[in-house]
Design brief:
- This protein has 7 helices and 11 strands.
- It has about 240 residues and is of the alpha/beta class.
- It has a single domain, classed as Purple Acid Phosphatase, chain A, domain 2 (4-Layer Sandwich), CATH 3.60.21.
Length: about 240
């Protein structure tokens, strides 16, 4: 691994068979510009949903796992933070894809800076109903009970949850689904004000400068992969948001 090479960040790909162009973009990215990077971090929602690691036999999932494993075996470490769609990704997936699964949030050091990584949904505290749901489905007992059901039954339940979620979102104020400024500051204080905070989830890519008690953090929000691909390139020269055609 080249310590001076750039580090790359992606999130919110929502991969599924119904969007083959996005899958092709990712495969091209993994076999091309991601090669030789210091590391690649996937900050959640890699898949549209994940019903359990017993779904690894699906040919689509195998293709994605094989592509990430090939990148890891080429010398670029790959790590993943769970999103709100793929929080059931577990050890079998990690082994198949060559990824390390990290806690959320996760602090790293890059190019002399401390960088805090998160999916981002923890910061959306104004969405009280979602936070209750998140707490429920991240519970180990709930997950064990859910995963004990047949795979087909789990997929049916997830599809129903997704449809309900989309319906509920249409009635929510836009601000509720964005990060809460106080929650952001609280997280930064908990980690002693890292120089960078990188997250996804909100699908509102951009860069924000936060000042708290004389300490400055730059918050980078990653773009989603609904219409095109997006990644953040971080190096000793700074940060650059890049769109894939």
């Amino acid at each position: 691994m080249n310590g001076t090479a750039p580090t790359l960040f992606i999130s919110d790909l929502h991969l599924c068979t119904s969007r083959p162009r996005i899958t092709a973009l990712l495969l091209k990215f993994l076999s091309g510009m991601a090669r030789g990077a210091r590391a690649l971090y996937v900050l959640g929602d890699l898949f549209e949903y994940w019903a359990g690691d017993d779904d690894l036999a699906d040919p689509f999932h195998q293709e994605i796992c094989d592509a990430f494993r090939a990148l890891a075996e080429s010398g670029t470490p790959v790590a993943l933070i769970h999103g709100n769609r793929d929080f059931l990704l577990a050890e079998k997936f990690a082994h198949a894809s060559g990824m390390a699964i990290l806690n959320d949030p996760h602090l790293i050091e890059l190019y002399g800076q401390r960088v805090l990584l998160s999916h981002g949904d923890l910061l959306c505290t104004d969405d009280i109903e979602y936070q209750k749901f998140r707490l429920q489905v991240r519970n180990a007992d709930w997950q064990q009970t859910f995963l004990s059901q047949p795979l087909a039954a789990r997929k049916t339940q997830i599809e129903a949850l997704r449809m309900r979620s989309e319906s509920e979102k249409s009635h929510k104020a836009e601000a509720i689904m964005d990060v809460n400024a106080d929650a952001v500051v609280e997280m930064l204080r908990r980690y002693d004000h890292p120089e960078l905070l990188i997250h996804g989830h909100t699908h509102r890519p951009g860069m924000h400068v936060i000042e708290d008690n004389g300490r400055i953090t730059t918050r980078w929000v990653l773009g989603d992969w609904y219409e095109t691909g997006n990644y953040l390139r971080v190096s000793g020269d700074g940060c650059e948001a890049i769109t894939l055609a």
